Amino acid sequence: MTQTVIPSKEERLTRLVARVKGLPAIPVAVIYPCDKESLKGPVMAAEAGVIAPILVGPEAKIRAVAGEFGINLANYRIVEAADSHAACAAAVALVHAGEAEALMKGSLHTDELMGTVVSRANNLRTSRRISHVFVMDVPTYPKPMLITDAAVNIAPGLEEKADIAQNAIYLAHALGVAAPKVAILAAVETVNPKMPTTLEAAALCKMADRGQIKGGILDGPLAFDNAVSAEAAKIKGIVSPVAGDADIFLVPDLEAGNMLFKQLEYLSFALTAGVVLGAKVPVILTSRADSAETRTASCVIAALLAHANRKT
Fold first, then answer.
1. Residue 55, class by beta-carbon neighbours within 10 Å (0-12 exposed, 13-18 middle, 19+ buried)?
2. Superfamily of domain 129-277
3. Taking every pair of C-alpha atoms in the chain, what is the biggest distance, in angstroms?
4. Rounded CA separation 85/70 (Å)
5. 62, 156, 231, 258: which has the fewest Cβ within 10 Å?
6. To which H or E segment does residue 137 belong?
7. Phi-psi category of residue 116: left, alpha or beta, with phi > 0 → left and psi -120 to 50 → alpha
8. What's the Rg (C-alpha) of the chain?
9. In which element (H, E) is residue 274 found?
């Protein structure tokens, strides 16, 4: 019996970083990087040539963390900000001044950062709803899995899901997928009036048919097995261009998405990256528990998106 060899996360991260080789590093405002992982991650990404970090926060505290963990800050700009709230404001100013093309969460709370991003007073919003995508390299799946939304929108309805799908499609384009296949997930693969998620899935597909969602191929409702396994879809008699070959997995709500991505990360050894879309610049949103490798991977995704934004 042949044993499957799962490439290490470091090996997969190296392959991911290679995607931005030769591209100029994008300037990123790193907001309040005041612990080991939130400082080490952007520095690792900078050393790999992915980003040019601007560290925004209390300089004395940032330098103390760097000194404690042996992180060399000699080549990096620090913008003084007394606390996390002031750091958010300073980072927004850097974006508006054209000095930063992305924002990155440090060791502050997610709610504080996202409050800054969604506030209309900060002029970072666009006409689309803000949403989050996890880009996951799962060893047992042949291509990246884009899972959305598992971090921002708690219980989106039809209109919100249309924006969530469109945001993910734009990201897939930036990652080089010309016509991403979007699986609209539910517990079943048939439309059931007692299950609103299945009705929304059907409506989203018709919206795509009418050009209200552009640039992707949508199908749903699809149960997760049908989305990832052509064999499962065949057994159930599902004929679909998406079944067994999905790029984007649109989850019913945040709870379902959160459970799905954490299962893949912790049980399937997925390399995970996370980015917020729908704002004027990408927002690298990571958990305070995330490793420096996850933060670096997220920087690569944001860099590819920023370079795509430059073209448009």
1. buried
2. Isopropylmalate Dehydrogenase (3.40.718.10)
3. 63
4. 27
5. 231
6. strand 131-137
7. alpha
8. 20
9. strand 271-277
CB atoms within 10 A of CB 5: 7
Domain segments of the chain as ranges: 1-125+279-307, 129-277
pLDDT recorded at residue 294? 86
Locate 114 and state its tokens.
């996202």
What's this model's pTM, rounded to 2 decimal places?
0.92
Name residues whose C-beta falls within 8 Å of residue 15's C-beta, 6 or more positions apart in sequence: none
Return the SS3 of 211: coil
* CA dist., res. 140 & res. 225, Å (int): 13
CA–CA gap between residue 261 and residue 256 (Å, rounded):
9
The CATH architecture of the domain made up of 1-125+279-307 is: 3-Layer(aba) Sandwich (3.40)
Please state the length of the chain.
312
> Are 144 and 183 spatial neighbours (Cβ–Cβ below 8 Å)?
no
d(CA 59, CA 83): 10
In three-state secondary structure terms, 138 is: coil
Integer angstrom CA distances of residue 58 from 85, 230, 253: 11, 52, 37
Over 90: is that where the pLDDT of 4 sits? no
CB 144 within 8 A of CB 135: yes
pLDDT, residue 14, reads 85
Question: Phi/psi of residue 289, each to 5°?
Answer: -90, -5
Contacts of 165 (CB under 8 A, 6+ apart): 148, 182, 184, 204, 213, 216, 218, 248, 250
Residue 166: which of 126, 137, 196, 199 has the closest Cα?
A: 126
Q: Is 59 exposed, middle or buried (0-12, 13-18, 19+ CB in 10 A)?
A: middle
